[in-house]
Protein backbone atom coordinates (compact mmCIF):
# COMPACT_ATOMS: atom_id res chain seq x y z
CA UNK A 1 0.00 0.00 0.00
CA UNK A 2 1.52 3.32 -1.05
CA UNK A 3 1.97 5.96 1.61
CA UNK A 4 -0.30 8.95 1.09
CA UNK A 5 2.18 11.85 0.97
CA UNK A 6 -0.37 14.39 2.17
CA UNK A 7 -1.33 12.16 5.12
CA UNK A 8 2.35 11.61 5.94
CA UNK A 9 3.01 15.37 5.91
CA UNK A 10 0.08 15.92 8.29
CA UNK A 11 1.29 13.05 10.50
CA UNK A 12 4.79 14.51 10.69
CA UNK A 13 3.47 18.01 11.48
CA UNK A 14 1.19 16.66 14.23
CA UNK A 15 4.03 14.54 15.66
CA UNK A 16 6.43 17.52 15.75
CA UNK A 17 3.72 19.71 17.33
CA UNK A 18 2.97 17.09 20.01
CA UNK A 19 6.64 16.59 20.89
CA UNK A 20 7.17 20.36 21.14
CA UNK A 21 4.65 20.64 24.00
CA UNK A 22 6.18 21.10 27.49
CA UNK A 23 7.42 17.83 28.98
CA UNK A 24 6.33 15.72 25.98
CA UNK A 25 8.22 12.54 25.14
CA UNK A 26 7.90 10.00 22.35
CA UNK A 27 7.64 6.30 23.05
CA UNK A 28 6.91 3.22 20.97
CA UNK A 29 4.83 0.74 22.97
CA UNK A 30 3.17 -2.00 20.92
CA UNK A 31 5.14 -0.83 17.86
CA UNK A 32 3.01 2.33 17.80
CA UNK A 33 4.24 5.92 18.14
CA UNK A 34 2.75 7.77 21.10
CA UNK A 35 3.41 11.12 22.73
CA UNK A 36 3.33 11.14 26.52
CA UNK A 37 3.43 13.74 29.23
CA UNK A 38 4.09 12.78 32.85
CA UNK A 39 4.20 9.09 31.73
CA UNK A 40 0.64 9.31 30.34
CA UNK A 41 -0.27 9.10 26.66
CA UNK A 42 -1.94 12.22 25.26
CA UNK A 43 -1.89 11.24 21.59
CA UNK A 44 -1.61 7.92 19.80
CA UNK A 45 0.06 8.51 16.44
CA UNK A 46 -0.17 4.95 15.18
CA UNK A 47 2.50 3.66 12.84
CA UNK A 48 4.16 5.36 9.88
CA UNK A 49 5.14 2.10 8.15
CA UNK A 50 1.79 1.68 6.31
CA UNK A 51 0.97 -1.49 8.26
CA UNK A 52 -2.19 0.26 9.39
CA UNK A 53 -4.02 3.30 7.95
CA UNK A 54 -2.44 6.54 9.22
CA UNK A 55 -4.36 8.35 11.90
CA UNK A 56 -4.19 10.08 15.23
CA UNK A 57 -6.13 9.27 18.38
CA UNK A 58 -6.78 12.10 20.84
CA UNK A 59 -8.75 12.58 24.04
CA UNK A 60 -11.33 15.34 23.58
CA UNK A 61 -13.26 16.40 26.67
CA UNK A 62 -14.74 19.47 25.00
CA UNK A 63 -18.13 18.29 23.67
CA UNK A 64 -18.02 20.47 20.55
CA UNK A 65 -14.49 19.33 19.60
CA UNK A 66 -15.40 15.70 20.32
CA UNK A 67 -18.53 15.91 18.18
CA UNK A 68 -16.62 17.70 15.40
CA UNK A 69 -13.87 15.06 15.40
CA UNK A 70 -16.46 12.30 15.05
CA UNK A 71 -17.85 13.98 11.91
CA UNK A 72 -14.52 13.52 10.09
CA UNK A 73 -14.53 10.86 7.35
CA UNK A 74 -13.79 7.48 8.93
CA UNK A 75 -13.46 8.87 12.47
CA UNK A 76 -14.65 6.66 15.31
CA UNK A 77 -14.47 6.32 19.08
CA UNK A 78 -11.13 4.70 19.91
CA UNK A 79 -11.00 0.97 20.53
CA UNK A 80 -10.16 -0.96 23.72
CA UNK A 81 -12.85 0.95 25.62
CA UNK A 82 -10.99 4.27 25.23
CA UNK A 83 -13.88 5.75 23.24
CA UNK A 84 -16.00 5.79 26.40
CA UNK A 85 -13.41 8.10 27.98
CA UNK A 86 -13.54 10.59 25.09
CA UNK A 87 -10.78 9.20 22.86
CA UNK A 88 -11.40 9.57 19.11
CA UNK A 89 -9.43 8.02 16.26
CA UNK A 90 -9.21 10.27 13.20
CA UNK A 91 -7.84 8.74 9.98
CA UNK A 92 -5.51 10.93 7.90
CA UNK A 93 -5.82 9.24 4.50
CA UNK A 94 -9.57 9.65 4.03
CA UNK A 95 -10.79 12.18 1.47
CA UNK A 96 -11.82 15.23 3.48
CA UNK A 97 -9.58 14.38 6.46
CA UNK A 98 -8.99 17.36 8.78
CA UNK A 99 -6.16 19.81 8.13
CA UNK A 100 -2.97 19.51 10.18
CA UNK A 101 -3.74 22.75 12.07
CA UNK A 102 -7.06 21.38 13.32
CA UNK A 103 -5.41 18.09 14.28
CA UNK A 104 -2.79 20.08 16.23
CA UNK A 105 -5.59 21.94 18.06
CA UNK A 106 -7.05 18.59 19.07
CA UNK A 107 -3.64 17.30 20.15
CA UNK A 108 -3.24 20.40 22.31
CA UNK A 109 -6.67 19.85 23.87
CA UNK A 110 -5.80 16.23 24.58
CA UNK A 111 -2.50 17.37 26.12
CA UNK A 112 -4.29 19.91 28.34
CA UNK A 113 -6.63 17.17 29.64
CA UNK A 114 -3.72 14.90 30.58
CA UNK A 115 -0.77 17.16 31.44
CA UNK A 116 -0.15 18.36 35.00
CA UNK A 117 -1.28 21.94 35.69
CA UNK A 118 2.29 23.31 35.91
CA UNK A 119 3.01 22.17 32.32
CA UNK A 120 -0.29 23.60 31.06
CA UNK A 121 0.69 26.89 32.76
CA UNK A 122 4.07 26.69 30.98
CA UNK A 123 2.27 26.14 27.66
CA UNK A 124 -0.02 29.11 28.31
CA UNK A 125 3.05 31.29 29.02
CA UNK A 126 4.50 30.60 25.54
Automatic annotation (TrEMBL):
Keywords: DNA-binding. One of its GO terms (molecular function) is DNA binding. InterPro entries: YjbR-like_sf, YjbR/MT2646/Rv2570-like. Coiled coil: none annotated. This is MmcQ/YjbR family DNA-binding protein. It comes from Streptomyces fuscus.
